[in-house]
Each structure stands twice: as structure tokens, then as C-alpha cells.
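User: Okay, second chain of the day. Same drill as before: sequence in, C-alpha cells out.
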Amino acid sequence: MSQNPPNLRPDLAPRALITDAPRPGQPTIGMVSLGCPKALVDSERILTRLRAEGYAISPDYQGAEAVIVNTCGFLDSAKAESLAAIGEALQNNGKVIVTGCLGAEPEYITGAHPKVLAVTGPHQYEQVLDAVHKAVPPAPDPFIDLLPATGVTLTPRHYSYLKISEGCNHKCKFCIIPDMRGRLVSRPAHAVLREAEKLVEAGVRELLVISQDTSAYGVDIKHGLSPWKGAEVRAHITDLAREMGALGAWVRLHYVYPYPHVRDLVPLMAEGLILPYLDIPFQHAHPDVLRRMARPAAAAKTLDEIAAWRRDCPDIILRSTFIVGYPGETEAEFQTLLDWLDEAQLDRVGAFQYENVAGARSNDLPDHVPDEVKQDRYDRFMEKAQAISEAKLAAKVGTTIQVIVDEVDEDGATCRTKADAPEIDGNLFIDEGFEALKPGDIVTVEVDEAGEYDLWGKLV
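Assistant: Same drill. C-alpha cells below.
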């Protein structure tokens, strides 16, 4: 059993799981998937296409005839991590195809690694396939190479990420994602729901809905109607959530901006159709910092919204991320953020220390905060967030809750409550009477112990 503190970088996806076993003579491709869950979904799509063409997927460099590295370009530290992964793949395999967000800067990659076979940008699936075909020609056997109904997944079988749109229409000064992934492009509602239904039919117990801006879903297609089960459904997050909630799986929403219509999701949570969990990237609380970020500056109104959400759904769990040390942030502005956090009492909190990213407009802002000050503010912020988490979890002792089992080993079962997303939030551990449990089971437990991020419980 692995215990927290969890990884507080919310741009990271769970570790990709690859369990393919190639047949003799089958061409084999390796995959290194970096960055966020949205990139993980891109990796799954690429591998699904390759599996359909007869390729096997290797979990290691030595077993692959070529390696795809799906990169991240969210922060300069993420870019460095991507370059290091490319270098490692070149050293251990030699044939490397690069894709993903950092692929939008091909000269940056080839300048560091001129021996890569090809560089493609994010969600350029056809170009990736072309590069693979050139490096390792396909050799399909239609009688053996059967594709699973769900395609290739890189997460455990009982949960799956479901991407509902690409791109983003926001122009936050610290972010270059719209430059790399483009403006908002929403999938038709029927296509999303059909995928969700297939996943649930294949045994998925939890759907994690993701996009760059989930609450803006459908804006670009004017919330157009799609035929679904003899009726029509709007391309709108409220309608989409309601329909997915009827499929019988847990539905968890990520990356939801606090637009006014988000309050329409809360009754669905109170009804039990979707999980009472909102992942909202507030980023800061001081209006001047938010303006310098080019984000909506309404922290006081946000507190009113939070109060309304909790009134309508007392069990709601709020997760958010924040940036400390943004250019120009004064000690008084940072104190406002700490005071806001005291009042908001968010359940799950992650934070970044601000970093310059090549191409971001925030690089040109005056009064950048020294590294040692950023570190101090980060430590103080996380100390407060941790204290809030610890107090909220302590209040759970003695209560009875549902959990989903993620892993079972000789020491016990590692589970998650409805308040916990995979690998970025906490866990609940069962260390007695767990032997009959298996991943994907949803069981009821009584909480008997709490820590800073995790809970312990016993089966009821």
C-alpha cells in the first residue's frame, strides 16, 4: 500500500499501465506518456490505432522496435523532463518519435535531440501513425490481433479518463496551452456519451471527465443538439453530466471553471447522479493578482458561490490549484490568498510555484518574485492547506462512506472515497478483512482513523 502525501502537481497523470504480451513476430512499439490526463488520453488513442493495425505495446525500451514519447510543455520544468525522457529513450532504444504539447516546438526538440525520427504536435494522430509506419512497418494478423472493445487503456480497468473537448479559449498570461492545443473544440454530445456507455459496459466503474475547460464544453458548437437514445441532448456540461450519471458509474468532473451555470451541476450531485466533487482551478484570490493573470477577478463572489454549493449539496468536495509567487505578488496579496483559503476551507489543494514558460506573456511582467520568497510562500500555503485537510479528515472518523478499491496486496486494500481522484488526492486504507476485495469493487466502510491526507477504515 502506498501512502500520501499525494503528488501536489495537478498537471500529472497517473503512471501509464502497459500489460500487452506480443505474439511471435509482432511489431512492437513502446510508449512514454508524460504530463496531464488529457495527454494520457491522447496516448491511449494513438495506441488504440496502433493495436488495430497489429502492433503490440511494450512496457520497456528493450522490448520495443521504436518508442513514442508523448511530451508535456506546461512548465519549463515539464519541458526539461520531456527532453530528459526523449534522451533516455534514445539511449535505451535509439528509434524515437516525439509527439504531444512540446511537439508544437519542433526546433526546441531537434536542437537538443537531432536524432529523433519525427516530431509531431498535440493530437496529431495521423502524423504519429505515419512516423511509426515508416520506422516499424505494420504486420497485422486479422485472426489474432483482436482489439479490446474499449481500445487500449493506460489506467486500471475500473476507471477511465473521458476527454470531452480539446483546446481552450482563455488567455491566461501564465499559460501557453492555447498556443499549443488551439482554441476550444468540443466533441459532439452523442460521441462522448457513446464512448462513456462503451466504457461502462466494459466494466469501468468510474468516469473521470476531463478537458482544458470542462464547464465551457459546447460553447464553440453553440450547445448544439445530438440524437441520443431516441431523444436529443445538448452539448452542454449539465446535460452531459446528467446523461452520464444515468449510466450507473461514478462520474467525476475535472477542470471546471466557476462560471454561473456551474451551480446547475450541484443539484445533480445532491441527487447522486454525479460525484459531489468539483475540481476548480482558482489560481489565486487577490483581485489584482487575478487581473495580472488575465483571469476573472471575483474572489469574494466565489466565496458566495462556494457557500451556495455547500448549502445545496452539503457533501460537496472542492479541489483547486493555486500559483504562488506570481510576478508582482506582494506579501499583502499573498496574505489575502491565505485568508481566503481560511474562509473557503477547500478540501483538496495543490499549488505551483510560478515559473516562466517560453512564450507566456507573464514573462514580461515586472517585479518577479525571488525564488527564496516563492519557496517560503509555497511552504506557508501548503502548511495551511494541510492543516485544513487534516481537520476535515478527522471529522470523518466514525462516519460510514462508500469507497472504490484501486489495489489489493498482502498488506491491505488501497481505496478512494468519492472525495478522491486517482493519485492526486488521498486514499482510504483497509488493513483487515480485505482478502476477498478486488480492484473496481465499491464497498461501504466505517472510518476509524485519519491522517493529514488519508483515511483508514473497516468494512461494514
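The chain has a mean pLDDT of 90.

User: Thanks, on to the next one.
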